[in-house]
Amino acid sequence: ASADEWTKRSIYQIVTDRFALGNGSSPSCDTSEKKYCGGNWQGIISKLDYIQSMGFDAIWISPVVENIDGAMSGDKAYHGYWTQNINSLNANFGLADDLISLSSALHDRGMYLMVDIVVNHQPQTFDYSLLQPFGGADCFHSECFISDYNNQTNVEQCWLGYSGLPLLDLDTENSTTVNIMYNWIKNLVSDYGIDGLRVDTVKHVRKDFWPEFASSAGVYTVGEVLTGEVGYAAPYTEGLDSILDYPTYFAVQKAFINGVSGDMATIAEIFTEAQKQYNHGAFYVGSFVENHDNPRIQSTVSDQSIVKNVITWPFINDGIPILYYGQEQGYQGGNDPANREALWLSGFDENKPLLAQIKNLNAARKQAISYNPSFLNNPVTFIPQASASSTLAISKPPLLALLTNGGSSSTESWSIPSSAGLYNANETLVDVLTCDTVITGSDGSLSVTTSQGLPKVLMPAKSLSATGSLCSTE
Ligand code: ABC
Ligand code: CA
Q1: Cβ-contact 399, 369 below 8 angstroms
Q2: Is the C-beta atom of 76 inside 6 A of ligand 1?
Q3: CA atoms in the 13 A half-sphere facing the CB of 126
Q4: Does residue 224 carry a catalytic annotation?
Q5: What is the pLDDT of residues 32-47, one digit of tens each?
Q6: How far apart are CA 275 and CA 280, in angstroms?
Q7: 41-80 confidence digits (pLDDT tens)
Q8: What ipTM is given for this predicted complex?
Q9: pLDDT-based confidence at 472, cuts 50/70/90?
Q10: Which residues is 83 bridged to in the sheet?
């Protein structure tokens, strides 16, 4: 599927080993052991109802290719990022038929499959011939660990990891190697009916490698460029369709994770830069507030009002929302590996408060897309607020999101002047997270106050369908 087709979607990110088992069992899973816990592709198939009922219509799964079987520094490759052979599959997750079944099960439901892929490196083994098809030291850049993130050649041609856990850096300057990779991705996508790719370690491969990689893939590509700088990330939106929106992720973390001491206005500044500097604006970015490489929000934040505000962000901006599995269950794991808890241990409880909110956010976005034909091409604007350090008003008609980092004991106010031109006089707006209503003033302006620091996502009553699942008026 193309980037434009993906913009309508909402993605649920899965660590395959930690989501569900095909046989329905619930083994214990100690994340600190860094071992396989048993999750597999059949397990995902068995829980597609759970994912779809939250409103997601795409999943992103861990890398699928065969990984080293042994341990590196005592750790196993349960995450899938330690490729041994790009031409075979990771048997811990299933057989080729299982992956094909997952892909068709998704397509039968009108859902998309996004697969994580790694080009940049392979783990070091005692026997180079195990690394297929690149079975020789000369297929890799010579040994040097990345030591200077300000030196782009060092970032591209030296190795990730360290001597105890080295990742051999593929020689992506060699045309034979490069062509193998272009052919591989073309075949992988067609063999398994893949609809999109999450591309790992993009900034560690020269930029001009990516355009032909993306065209060989022929589907939406979203790259991981781990940086807080919009200017550094921007050029990568030329070669791939887009990138995971890490710069805004960091701004969101700073704004909310520090509570009221964080500055909400920074989110608007960084995101506005992203809209300006990225190819296709921010429309094709993957927008997220948690993932498998960073501590979960609730590892440091306990105030549920703040959590609810943070979780709202990916669903109300220009990008494609991505939710990291376990957020809906209120998981609290810290840094890798603690943030990769087994989801089956939650019992897939569908009565959790955050799950209800996520369902509403997905429904609101879908309703906005169908109500306003230009919703997906209309960039969000931030409406200046008097208390800009603790509040944010984000407009993307018919949505207006009001966020705050004040926390559950704060009272916050937003004022939307009539000059913003958003509303008519005396118009009824519905907060789709609670179904409460507010009415605009006689000049079309809007004043809203909340007492518990909760987020609001307002939609004009006229934009909601009378019978839909979202605060139906009948
Ligand atoms: C293993 C163990 C861990 C242990 C670790 C040292 O080794 O499991 O317990 O802590 C996979 C596995 C990991 C595993 C690694 C290493 O492999 O998932 O569990 O960790 O073998 C991608 C994937 C990631 C994956 C790999 C490797 C790469 O998403 O899951 O890890 O295939 C760099 C890369 C980035 C990579 C990330 C882990 O490391 O660029 O692609 N992720 C700075 C640098 C970044 C750097 C980041 C973290 O630090 O600029 O390049 O990411 O080291 C901002 C700045 C940024 C700065 C951030 C932190 O702050 O602007 O520049 O990032 O403000
Ligand atoms: Ca490299």
Answers
A1: no
A2: no
A3: 4
A4: yes
A5: 999 999 999 999 999 9
A6: 8
A7: 999 999 999 999 999 999 999 999 999 998 999 999 999 9
A8: 0.98
A9: confident
A10: 67
pTM > 0.80: yes or no: yes
Length of the chain: 474
What is the C-alpha separation between 186 and 184, in angstroms, rounded? 5
Query: What is the SS3 assignment for the chain?
Result: CCHHHHCCCCEEECCHHHCCCCCCCCCCCCHHHCCCCCCCHHHHHHCHHHHHHCCCCEEEECCCEEECCCCECCECCCCCCCEEEEEEECCCCCCHHHHHHHHHHHHHCCCEEEEEECCCEEECCCCHHHCECCCCHHHECCCCECCCCCCHHHHHHCEEEECCEEEEEECCCCHHHHHHHHHHHHHHHHHHCCCEEEECCHHHCCHHHHHHHHHHHCCEEEECCCCCCHHHHCCHHHHCCEEECHHHHHHHHHHHHCHHHCCCHHHHHHHHHHHHHCCCCCCCCEECCCCCCCCCHHHCCCCHHHHHHHHHHHHCCCCEEEEECCCCCCCCCCCCCCCCCCHHHHCCCCCCHHHHHHHHHHHHHHHHHHHCCCHHHCCCEECCCCCCCCEEEEEECCEEEEEECCCCCCCEEEEECHHHCCCCCCCEEEECCCCCEEECCCCCCEEEEECCCCCEEEEEHHHCCCCCCCCCCC
Write down the pLDDT at residue 388. 87
Q: What is the pLDDT of residue 473?
A: 61
Give the tokens for residue 283: 């429309």
Joined together, the tokens standing for residue 51 give 């994912």
Identify the residue whose tokens are 């934040």. 301
Rounded to 5°, the CA angle 381-243-341 comes to: 105
Instruction: Give 293 Cα–ligand 1 centroid separation in angstroms.
Output: 7
Ligand 1 contact, 198 CB (< 6 A): no
What is the Å distance from ligand 2's center to 160 Cα? 8
Instruction: Please state at what angle helix 304-312 crosses helix 353-371, rounded to 10 degrees.
Output: 30
> Amino acid letter at 210?
W
364 lines ligand 1 (CB under 6 A): no
Nearest to 57 by CA among 119, 5, 134: 5
- 273 pLDDT band, cuts 50/70/90, is very high
| Spacing, Cα 192 to ligand 2 middle (Å) | 26
Span 127-174, pLDDT tens digits? 888 899 988 889 999 999 999 999 999 999 999 999 999 999 999 999
Pocket lining: 149 vs ligand 1, CB cutoff 6 Å: yes
